UniProtKB/TrEMBL annotation:
<protein>
    <recommendedName>
        <fullName>Undecaprenyl-diphosphatase</fullName>
        <ecNumber>3.6.1.27</ecNumber>
    </recommendedName>
</protein>
<feature type="transmembrane region" description="Helical">
    <location>
        <begin position="215"/>
        <end position="236"/>
    </location>
</feature>
<keyword id="KW-0472">Membrane</keyword>
<feature type="transmembrane region" description="Helical">
    <location>
        <begin position="42"/>
        <end position="59"/>
    </location>
</feature>
<keyword id="KW-0378">Hydrolase</keyword>
<comment type="function">
    <text>Catalyzes the dephosphorylation of undecaprenyl diphosphate (UPP).</text>
</comment>
<dbReference type="GO" id="GO:0050380">
    <property type="term" value="F:undecaprenyl-diphosphatase activity"/>
</dbReference>
<feature type="transmembrane region" description="Helical">
    <location>
        <begin position="146"/>
        <end position="172"/>
    </location>
</feature>
<feature type="transmembrane region" description="Helical">
    <location>
        <begin position="184"/>
        <end position="203"/>
    </location>
</feature>
<dbReference type="GO" id="GO:0005886">
    <property type="term" value="C:plasma membrane"/>
</dbReference>
<keyword id="KW-1133">Transmembrane helix</keyword>
<feature type="transmembrane region" description="Helical">
    <location>
        <begin position="242"/>
        <end position="262"/>
    </location>
</feature>
<dbReference type="Pfam" id="PF02673">
    <property type="entry name" value="BacA"/>
</dbReference>
<keyword id="KW-0812">Transmembrane</keyword>
<comment type="similarity">
    <text>Belongs to the UppP family.</text>
</comment>
<keyword id="KW-1003">Cell membrane</keyword>
<dbReference type="InterPro" id="IPR003824">
    <property type="entry name" value="UppP"/>
</dbReference>
Length: 263
């Protein structure tokens, strides 16, 4: 693999990871179609790429993680419960789907449905009785919300199914404040990525498909691009009202889902 290809893969991961489209699916498409890697090798490498964006989350939210560990406030205590419970629930769906991956993948269809749900949520929130006072905060999340959030996140092991898309959609449908929804999605990604990488390494019997130099380049580029993308998305969420935020994300999701059918 050439250095420029490693840079492109890092950029794909860093930019797409936080959008409601599958970074894993886009990276795999690039690797299979243009780099001629096998689907199994492409999947392993796509999972590995998440380490860069995971490091970006840790750096961006380092104070938040430290506060969560120290449980300094009610919000921090709730966040810790969300991270632990959703991670356990993620394993319930994620691990079996990881082993069934080669025989089943309906990622495009699920992506399309996610987009529709986001748009529908945005339209419903434009009703006259939809006010900002009705938006929930992190402290309002219940145990069942945390469990279903984790179950939804586990679906993202399927190429074409966006982790951020499924988790943000679920949280927005539960009327969580949009910035809080983004932050929760970012935070719960860290243990999910660590688990996915560990599972991939433990079940892989083949040699690494890239050199150490290329691996470092991929992680570095995905880290830098991912960190910048987090800032952009957070600012984007603050400038738009809740309804427009949902509709725009939904249109992006549907556009990416139907693009392969058009081409």
């Amino acid at each position: 693999m050439e250095l420029i290809q490693s840079v492109l893969l890092g950029l794909i991961q860093g930019i797409v990871e936080w959008l409601p489209i599958s970074s894993e699916g886009q990276a795999m498409l690039f690797m299979v179609e243009f780099l001629r890697l096998s689907p199994a090798d492409a999947l392993s490498l796509a999972i590995f790429l998440h380490l860069g964006t995971m490091l970006a989350v840790i750096l961006k939210f380092r104070i938040k993680f430290l506060n969560v560990i120290g449980r300094h406030s009610k919000s921090d205590q709730t966040l810790l419960r969300i991270i632990v419970i959703s991670t356990l629930a993620t394993g319930i769906t994620g691990v079996p789907l990881f082993f069934l991956l080669k025989s089943f993948n309906q990622g495009d269809i699920i992506m399309f449905l996610i987009g529709l749900m986001l748009i529908l949520t945005g339209i419903l929130l434009r009703a006259p009785d939809s006010t900002i006072d009705k938006y929930k905060q992190i402290e309002d999340m219940k145990m069942r919300d945390m469990i279903f959030l984790g179950l939804a996140q586990g679906l993202s092991i399927l190429p074409g199914v966006s982790r951020s898309g499924t988790t943000i959609t679920f949280l927005l449908l539960r009327k969580l404040n949009q910035r809080a929804a983004l932050e929760v999605s970012f935070l719960i990604s860290v243990p999910a990525v660590l688990g996915a990488v560990a599972l991939s390494l433990l079940t892989s019997s083949s040699q690494p498909v890239v050199s150490l130099e290329n691996a470092i380049v991929m992680i570095s580029v995905s880290f830098l691009a991912g960190y910048a993308a987090i800032d952009v998305l957070l600012r984007f969420s603050e400038r738009l009202n809740f309804s427009k935020f949902c509709i725009i994300l939904g249109l992006i999701t549907i556009g990416v889902a139907v693009l392969p059918w058009i081409i």
